[in-house]
Amino acid sequence: MKAISIRLPDDLAKRIEDAATEAGNSLNAQVVDMLFRAKSADSLSLTVRVPIDVARRSAVYYVTESQGMDPVVDTPADLERWVTYVLLEAGGFDEGDASLHVSSVGDHVVITGNLEIMRVIQSYILE
Asked: Are the C-beta atoms of residues 84 and 102 closer than 8 Å to each other?
């Protein structure tokens, strides 16, 4: 059996807890306990290095072709921001949802993120 990780917004978890408390049902309390444990569990976080020229070319291509913009990528900080944008946009994530960190280190862009981010890297950065 494969384990899954569930993250709930704090307000949803609180509403579930309140409903279980009002119902006084021990099964509901067990479900709430399970959801809180799942919510607090850390997701798997992975780090990959991508050659800086591959990251730049992929980010510029994605932004130009799919968004119709002409990105300015003159500095490592520019590249970090555009790679972050591409990963969030292509993956359909909000900034806080993705557990994403992008930094330029020498000749590489180092990307840390969850499994969903790794899938987006494979599809949009490395292709």
From this structure: yes
